């Protein structure tokens, strides 16, 4: 690699889809001679069970790159190149060297571009117009924003369970305040901007309702990965996965390292809501 580029300080997100697809062409085929994506995943710190789960993916290389980027703050381009060297895939590094360097240079150029001039904002209380008056109880004049104990990440097919969650956590002695997008968010704003605002600055925690349909939801995928990026390693216990019905598809690998609140086990159902409420009540 070019000596002028410090790849160890360039995040993995600098690599575009073209480079990631080409990495998959090299690493996806199971090869008895050269190391494949499984060796790379092992060096990234994925467990044996996580790696086995990736075998069902059409493009496991792309998936491990996405999940590594979401869960690991040390996911840098330099680290990826080092891992490829460690598993004796210098051929991949050499063949993609030019493309990787181009992506890294573009990333550095974007970082060095002068920022767009916008009104000064407070990091804790956003005041840009699109982030004011976004929920039912917000001050339309941009005063103190409405805050919540938890953002609920769900897909429409799981809405009945979300209703039960509202009854059990808001309308009981727990008196928690949940952010339910379809109920609390006003229409007319950019979905991604508002969602990131709510998860990062308005909600202490995020509850992820896991189901087969969740795995096919682009919105749930964005919300989960965004929340994980805010708390790598789950040090702040910010993300709480909830499984409320049996699944045909594998449990999402990106959440396997988190403790799950499981409603499907009859022997623990009586403790389910108390445990979840206690987790959401933590400071």
From TrEMBL:
Residue ranges of every copy of the Death domain listed in the record: 22-100
GO terms under cellular component: cytoplasm; nucleus; plasma membrane
Subcellular location, principal: cytoplasm
Pfam (any one): Death
Keyword GTP-binding among UniProt keywords: no
UniProt GO MF annotations: TIR domain binding; Toll-like receptor binding
Localization, UniProt: Cytoplasm
SUPFAM superfamilies: DEATH domain, Toll/Interleukin receptor TIR domain
UniProt protein name: Myeloid differentiation primary response protein MyD88
The organism of origin for this protein: Oncorhynchus kisutch (Coho salmon)
């Amino acid at each position: 690699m070019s000596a002028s580029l410090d790849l160890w300080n360039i995040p993995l997100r600098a690599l575009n889809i073209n480079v990631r697809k080409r990495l998959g062409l090299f690493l996806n085929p199971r090869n008895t001679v050269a190391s494949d994506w499984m060796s790379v995943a092992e060096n990234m710190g994925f467990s044996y069970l996580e790696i086995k789960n990736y075998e069902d993916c059409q493009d496991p290389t792309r998936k491990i790159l996405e999940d590594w980027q979401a869960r690991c703050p040390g996911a840098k381009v330099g680290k990826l190149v080092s891992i490829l060297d460690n598993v004796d895939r210098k051929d991949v590094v050499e063949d993609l060297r030019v493309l990787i360097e181009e992506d890294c240079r573009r990333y550095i150029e974007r970082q060095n571009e002068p920022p767009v001039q916008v009104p000064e904002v407070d990091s804790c209380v956003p005041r840009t117009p699109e982030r004011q008056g976004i929920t039912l109880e917000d001050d339309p004049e941009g005063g103190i924003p409405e805050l919540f104990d938890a953002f609920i990440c769900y897909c429409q097919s799981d809405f009945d369970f979300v209703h039960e969650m509202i009854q059990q956590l808001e309308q009981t002695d727990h008196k928690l305040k949940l952010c339910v997008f379809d109920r609390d968010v006003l229409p007319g704003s950019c979905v991604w901007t508002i969602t990131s605002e709510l998860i990062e600055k308005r909600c202490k925690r995020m509850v992820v309702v896991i189901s087969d349909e969740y795995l096919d939801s682009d919105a749930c995928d964005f919300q989960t990965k965004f929340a994980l990026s805010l708390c790598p390693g789950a040090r702040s216990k910010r993300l709480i996965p909830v499984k409320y019905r049996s699944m045909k598809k594998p449990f999402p690998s990106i959440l396997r390292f988190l403790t799950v609140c499981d409603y499907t086990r009859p022997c623990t159902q009586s403790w389910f809501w108390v445990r979840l409420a206690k987790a959401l009540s933590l400071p």
